[in-house]
Amino acid sequence: MNKVNWKFDNTYSKLSKSFRELIKPTPVHKPEIIIFNHQLAKDLNLDFSRLNNEELSNIFSGNDLPKETITLAQAYAGHQFGHFTMLGDGRAVLLGEHLDNKKNRYDIQFKGSGRTSFSREGDGRAALAPMLREYLISEAIHALKIPTTRSLAVVKTGEKVVRENLLDGAILTRVASSHIRVGTFQYIAATQNIENLNTLVDYTIQRHYPQLTSSKFKAYDLLNLVIERQCSLVVDWMRVGFIHGVMNTDNMSISGETIDYGPCAFMDHYDPKTVFSSIDKFGRYAFSNQPPITKWNLARFAECIVPLIDKSEDYAIKLATDLIDNFQNIYEDKWLKMMKNKLGLFGEDYKDKKLIIDLLYWMEKNKADYTNTFCNLMDINSNEIYKNNDFINWKKEWKKRSKLNNSTKEKQGKLMKINNPTVIPRNHKVEEALAEADKGNLDKMKKLLAILKKPYDNQNNIEEYQAPAPLSNEKYQTFCGT
Ligand code: AMP
Ligand code: MG
């Protein structure tokens, strides 16, 4: 099989038993490849061009494992909606880490690959539509230039999974810079084994923060950098109106990538309280709660590594608390910069924050579409709503402020173009594409993927993909899809 050019190096399998269970994917009955990401394969230096569909199906179902893999399920814990639970890969296995030709290391993971010792009551399987959903949205997030896990393939297993209905089973191949989560630290911390905790910190630094290799204060510096990356990630989500939907600590990657696309969705009209997930009854993961929840999750991460920050527990807690408390400042700075980028504002003016808040307030009050309002400012959306007097007055203020830019209109336009998508995965379009794909027709999904590949371009004839859902769709709900 190595005509494919896999270069596996399985460092995670070399960690002690506390970290993982060595286990193979459970073979499936009749695998059938449904979608394959040729560009990603190429970027990973993999070449599947000589394989036929049957061979691809066998590989990406786990029926035919590349020789160099040492497959395993990772142990982790997590705060799920605030409640701590010991978890682990209950329906996923890691094939190992593949190295591309620049020696970049990527986890290759099958999701939906059968039971493991972490499966609890679950069947270890996944259904087709949610796996296609993860494929679609993760690729869209990548195209939006936001750090994320990627999707290489989806295979139908030829077996049914029992949910509320009988559904087609499927396996997603997920590619990530790693699957180390806040929850991985929580799991190891819960076992109170300092040696393992040290190992995990060193392993994480080696993989994601090599600049800290010779630091004298590894745990402290790691916390600092993880805060920085997570903060940048959530600011990016806020930039494009993305709602992750299930920001449990097991779904928060230490690398700062978006991970685990369950009930996520994009906001249409601006409303900070937007929640789509049917299980998020109290809005814990609502749009505007994402930054404070990121901070909350980071505090859980900090708690895990306190014993490594300083020998004196009190002092370690003080150091960690100071870092966590600074989250708000870092966030506000990054958020302000991001919003100014969206408005094409250079330099600083004391009224900038007010200008931004006035616009958000107007959008909320008038149920204006978040994405399209910024498009209007770039002269590419002229909906009736933008003839509103308050908006016109706001625009005058914005233009006045833009004159302080000390720059050209062109440069302003460029800055706005790289920060404001002209198209996002609209919920009704995603659902429409997935419903067809679930019935076996992938045309709509592929068309949607092609459009979402260039979210910052001004593409022709894509108006139906840019319009928000019809009003009847307002109570849009997403489901965890396990
Ligand atoms: P998720 O909601 O996908 O983030 O999963 C949360 C936890 O539940 C993880 O430990 C998963 O491995 C586990 N899990 C989710 N669905 C299943 C399933 N069908 N069978 C076994 N474990 C599952
Ligand atoms: Mg998860």
List descriptors.
single chain, alpha+beta, 2 domains, 7-stranded antiparallel β-sheet, 16 helices, 13 strands, 14% strand, binds adenosine monophosphate, binds magnesium ion
Cα(first) to Cα(last) distance is 32 Å
Number of helices: 16
Rg (C-alpha, Å) = 23 Å
Oligomer: single chain
> What's the main sheet like?
7 strands, antiparallel
Give the integer mean of the pLDDT values.
Answer: 97
Shape: globular
Bound molecules: adenosine monophosphate, magnesium ion
Percent in helix: 40-55%
Number of domains: 2
Strand content: 5-15%
**Number of E-type strands:** 13
Provide the succession of SSEs.
EEEHHEEEEEEHEEHHHEEHHHHHHHHHH
Low-confidence stretches: none
Q: What structural category arises from helix and sheet content?
A: alpha+beta
Task: Summarize this structure briefly.
This protein has 16 helices and 13 strands.
Structural overview:
- It is globular, with a radius of gyration of 23 Å.
- It has helices spanning 38-43, 53-61, 128-143, 182-190, 194-208, 218-240, 290-309, 313-325, 327-342, 352-366, 370-377, 389-403, 409-417, 427-438, 443-452, 463-466, and strands at residues 8-9, 20-22, 32-36, 72-74, 77-80, 83-86, 92-99, 105-111, 126-127, 150-162, 166-176, 242-243, 265-266.
- The longest helix is centred in the middle third of the chain and has 23 residues, at 218-240.
- The protein is α+β, with helices and mostly antiparallel strands and 482 residues long.
- The mean pLDDT is 97.
- 41% of the residues lie in helices and 14% in strands.
- The protein is built from 16 helices and 13 strands.
- The protein has two domains: 2-176, no CATH class; 180-482, no CATH class.
- Strand 5 and strand 6 form a beta hairpin.
- Strands 1, 3, 7, 8, 9, 10 and 11 form a seven-stranded antiparallel beta sheet that branches. Strands 2-4 form a two-stranded antiparallel sheet.
- Helix 3 (128-143) crosses helix 14 and helix 5 (194-208) packs across helix 7 (290-309).
- It binds adenosine monophosphate (AMP) and magnesium ion.
- Magnesium ion (MG) is lined by residues 250-251, 260.
